[in-house]
Every structure is written in C-alpha cells, then in structure tokens.
Prior knowledge:
Layout: H1 5-18, E1 31-36, E2 43-47, E3 51-55, E4 61-62
Antiparallel strand pairs: 1-2, 2-3, 3-4
Amino acid sequence: xxxxxxxxxxxxxxxxxxxxxxxxxxxxxxxxxxxxxxxxxxxxxxxxxxxxxxxxxxxxxxx
Length: 63
C-alpha cells in the first residue's frame, strides 16, 4: 500500500517541523520510525521524547 499524495505532503511538513528547520527556538526532535498501517492506510510517526503522530489518508495529522 502506498501513501496518498496528501499523506506524503503532511509527512514532509511534520518532519520539517520536528527537525527544527522552521522554529529555531524549539528543541530538535529525532524521528525514530515511520510506518504505514496496512489495515487503515494511516501513517504513524514516532519521534523523540515519546511523540506519536498519526497521518490520516486525507493528510490531517494529530499527536
């Protein structure tokens, strides 16, 4: 299963924000894992300090 175009764009925005490229005052967060759930088609992102994000097929994401 492939991510949708909306998911790919949301993933890029999320990774950009997590890696401190947009907000220099924020602490850098490492990205540990990115995985697609074959059952739902949602992307899951695990980042430093136990941050978890789910990117839905529409491109919306939430912690």
